[in-house]
Design brief:
Layout (H helix, E strand, L loop, with lengths): L1 H15 L3 H13 L5 H37 L4 H18 L1
């Protein structure tokens, strides 16, 4: 199930992630047509890259929250739960001696 979420997340990130080269290419076309100055173009590229990073981070947080919610609803043991259970069994064995 987590693989399903991972694939969905990666597809979403891929849709949000336009490479810097592709952004630069589109902005260069605007500069060539005289719709932007070189300085405006550079600022736009930087702004779009930053925005993409923010969107990826936001999406990552949303996916993490949803996965935690689903795991909680399904009552699936987490790594933390498994480690805690293992530690408790180990402690019980030591006290039994």
């Amino acid at each position: 199930m987590l693989d399903f979420f991972k694939r969905g997340f990666l597809a979403t990130v891929g849709a949000l992630s336009i490479s810097r080269e592709k952004i630069q290419e589109m902005v260069d076309q605007l500069v060539e047509r005289g719709e932007l100055t070189r300085d405006e173009g550079k600022q736009l590229v930087d702004k779009l890259i930053k925005r993409g990073q923010e969107e990826r981070e936001t999406m990552g947080n949303l996916v993490r929250q949803e996965v935690q919610k689903v795991v909680g609803e399904l009552d699936i043991a987490t790594r933390k739960d498994l480690r805690l259970g293992s530690s408790m069994r180990s402690a019980d064995l030591h006290h039994a001696d």
